Every structure is written in C-alpha cells, then in structure tokens.
C-alpha cells in the first residue's frame, strides 16, 4: 500500500473498535461495614459472562456503534452500568497492541470519568457490576489492568497542576477534604500544615466567609477554586478559525465533546 | 445491546479505523528564497489523488493494518511520506465524529511528531507531499484542519511545563535558539531579557562552559536541560506491578510505545 498517495480514511475490516471507560470515585467505606477508614479511589468493574476471559472482571465498555460518537459511547456505557453521569469525562488513550485480545484484533479507545462520592453512593449498579478499591483489584480481562494503572498515573499527574480534584468535591470544600483527595490519589499521608501552605500559595484556591459545621469536628473554613473549573483538554468543537480551542468554559458538569 | 453483560472487545464492522500523524518542525526559510525570516512551525501534507476530497491536502495517514501497532502505523506513515524518524512521537487524540468522512464512518487515531529543523532540511519528500507553514495552510480534507489546530494548541500548552522544545533543538542550544522556538510556537515576539530571566529561574536549563561561535553573531553561551529529557506521556509497557509507568527514561530518540 502506498501511504503517500492513498492517505487516511480507509478501513481494514480485520480491526475492531471498542470504547471502554475507567470510572474513579472517592469512597470512605470498604463495603464491609468498617467505620471511617481513610477514603480511597474506587472503580466499578463488570463481570464478563462469555469468552474470552469468561468470569473475569473488566472495564465497562462495548463496541463503538456506527451511529455513536466516541464520547456518546463512553457516556452510554457509564449510564448502563452505573446510572451515573460523570462530572468529568475525558478521552484517556487508544490501546491498540496486537495481542491484547486473544481472538481478534481490537483497538480500545478508553475514556476516564470522575464522579463525586455523593453521587457514587446513590449509584444503582447493573447486574454483574461491582465497585472495587483501586489498590485491591481482582485479576482483569485483556490489558485492562494496564489501562487502570495508566489512568491512575494520569490522575496523579493531573492533580498537581489542575483543578481536577473538583470532580471529587463540591463547589466549596475544607482543606481537610481537599487533602483527603490528594492522599487518596497519591496513596500517601500528607502533613496538614505543609499541605495548607502549599495549597494557599498555589493560587488555586480562595478562602470563603463560610464555615463547615456539624459532624464530629469543629467548624472548618470552606474554600473554593479561584477560577472557573476548566474543561478537560479536548479538541475544539467545530471548525473554528481561531487557533485556540475553547478550554476554559465555566461548567459544573464537565463532558468532553468530539469536534462537531 | 446489553453493555453491562457484554463488555468490551466486540467490533462493529461498519466503523473503520485509520492512523494519521501531525508532524511539526521549525523552519526559517519560506521555501521561496527569502533570507532569514523568523522561524515558524511547518508541517508536511499529502495531496489526495482520489475521492473523497480528491486534490485537497491531508495529513499523512492510512488505515490501520491488522498486523501493525498504532505507533508502528504512525511511524511507517512518517517514513513513507518524509523519510523521517521523529525525535518525539506521541498519541494525540482519537477523532471519531459521526460525519467527519462523507462516505463511511472512520475513526482516526492521530499521533503527533516533532522533528528537528536540521533533520527536516535533509528530508526527501514522497510524491505529492509538501511542507506548509502552520499559519498558512491550504484547505484540508476531512476534519484535518481541526486536528492540526488541536495539535498546535497541545504544543503551545506543553511548551510551558516540559522539555518539549528539546525536539526542535540539539543537546545544547543558545537562549536565542530556545527563544525562537517559543516565539514560533506561541506566535508572538518575546522580550529577550524577560525570556532569559524566566528560563534561568525555571530550573529547566543550565549554562554550560561552551560557546556557540561562527555565523554572523558574536559567540553565545550554550545551555542544556538540567534533567534527562522525559519521554512523552504514554502507558507503561508490559503488565508491570508498579503503579507508575516508566516516564523518565533518558533517550534522545523519543518514541511512544504501546504496552507490549
């Protein structure tokens, strides 16, 4: 095949295309009634009921329908498996290794989603769907373990230079709540005084006049983000003449979109 | 279809899969003999010789072969069209809009590559391939204009917090050369004294003992990166037990890899 004279946009019917989603939330419970353990990152998995990998757990996903955009396929998977609409949905990576599926060649375009812990608690799971802690996953089908590891790595990196913790928190939050998110993602304890200094000097958050009261703790100062929370890095919708895609539309429900 | 019980890894034969590549380099010449204009970002395009979009320019690319990994497909396109092996090759994004191709549904997984200007000068182009300045592109086939805009936006963002300029420069470089890269990518003039202060306080570069001599200018101090240049953000190869993919292997020829 002459790539230089037949560029792009042909198809090879031997390669299949799937869309899968890694869905993270922050959960304090361990599902077995333990009281108030440190919150950790959890994700929902789906038990396979046919070959290959019958009986193993896998990321929610499915073949890309001919009439579905990539983001629509990811959203639809989310809704079917967990009844959730994520605060944050972004394309993660396309995994296309030759032998990632034993029977046929399949490329999986993977999205990652973050949902608030309040939402995750209200979740109705589909049949054969369960939440697992990210640090205690069962054996996974395909290369889904690698995909989860990569998503966790992206989450850790993104936490450091963005508002991504927003997806786990409400509009306002205490510094303890923000520290808990960082501790869960980074999987290590952070010194409260150092964390406070770093966060306050980062310019990312502002004190509000409000206090969080109630609960076992004394009232704590509430903070908010200094700037509107930005959308995930996604291509600009439409054929804009501007060289700079819109990347900072204020929005609370963040959804990545394919270009129109 | 029950997504919750038939997860992942099926295929819909109606959706095709292509891999395309956006290749950026820094060029000072304008191709018409003008002497010493400011360097700008250029990219190679391929003229289509069949429908759809017969005669229009497009990104180099082609269908994903059943026996090719995604990165191999991107590399092979690069080599066929430009004889180039890029210093930097990274997956950019999967574009899957429903009507991006008029005839059939095609999802394009797009890579982006950076090549040094010295290499770009030595390039032998394939038939129907030409370099174009990024700020004066001809009409492009499909949604390739949007893809180029998105790649430029990613390049601008990445420049600010990484060593990505390395891909345009040698192991050592003068501050003027580094400023030229930033000016070309950001498309604006930067004040030399401010730029020097910012770069020197960033901790990203170190003075060497060497000077660049020759040419029309007086000898200039050479700089180098303080740390080994890191690989692009890609999933970890293999099923590592570590939660953190290898991301800082020192390497001069940077190539993204699918997990093995």
Amino- and carboxy-terminal Cα gap of chain A: 31 Å
Percentage of residues in DSSP E strands of chain A: 15-25%
**Poorly predicted runs of chain A:** 1-10, 237-260
Mean pLDDT of chain A, as a whole number? 79
Total number of domains of chain A: 2
Please report the total strand number of chain A as a whole number.
9
Shape of chain A: elongated
N-to-C SSE string of chain A, H for helix and E for strand: EEEEHEEHEHHHEE
Considering residues with a beta carbon less than 8 A from a beta carbon on another chain, report the largest interface and each chain's count. A-B, 90 and 90 residues
Gyration radius of chain A, in Å: 20 Å
Strand count, sense and barrel status of the largest sheet of chain A are: 7 strands, mixed
Identify the CATH homologous superfamily of the largest domain in chain A.
Nucleoside Triphosphate Pyrophosphohydrolase
- Quaternary structure: homodimer
- Per CATH, which architecture of the largest domain in chain A? Alpha-Beta Complex
Q: What structural category characterises the helix and strand content of chain A?
A: alpha+beta
What is the CATH third-level topology name of the largest domain in chain A? Nucleoside Triphosphate Pyrophosphohydrolase
CATH class of the largest domain in chain A: Alpha Beta
The total of helices of chain A stands at 5
Q: What percentage of residues of chain A falls in helices of 4 or more residues?
A: 10-25%
């Amino acid at each position: 095949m002459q790539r230089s004279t037949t560029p792009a946009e042909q198809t090879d019917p031997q390669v299949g295309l799937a869309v899968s989603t890694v869905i993270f939330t922050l959960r304090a419970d361990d599902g077995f009634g333990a009281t108030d353990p440190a919150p950790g990152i959890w994700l929902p998995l789906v038990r396979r009921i046919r070959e290959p990998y019958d009986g193993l757990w896998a990321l929610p996903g499915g073949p890309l329908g001919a009439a579905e955009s990539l983001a629509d396929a990811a959203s639809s998977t989310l809704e079917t498996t967990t009844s959730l609409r994520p605060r944050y949905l972004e394309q993660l990576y396309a995994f296309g290794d030759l032998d990632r599926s034993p029977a046929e060649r399949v490329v999986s375009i993977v999205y990652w989603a973050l949902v608030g812990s309040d939402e995750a608690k209200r979740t109705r799971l589909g049949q054969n769907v369960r939440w697992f802690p990210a640090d205690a996953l069962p054996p996974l089908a395909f290369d889904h373990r690698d995909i989860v590891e990569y998503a966790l790595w992206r989450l850790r990196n993104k936490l450091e230079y963005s508002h991504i913790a927003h997806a786990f928190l409400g509009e306002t939050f205490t510094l303890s709540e923000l520290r808990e998110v960082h501790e869960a993602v980074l999987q290590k304890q952070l010194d409260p005084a150092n964390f406070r200094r770093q966060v306050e000097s980062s310019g990312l958050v502002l004190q509000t006049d409000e206090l969080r009261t109630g609960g076992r703790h004394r009232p704590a100062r509430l903070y908010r983000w200094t700037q509107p929370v930005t959308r995930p890095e996604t291509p600009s919708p439409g054929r804009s003449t501007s060289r700079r895609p819109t990347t900072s539309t204020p929005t609370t429900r963040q959804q990545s979109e394919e270009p129109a």
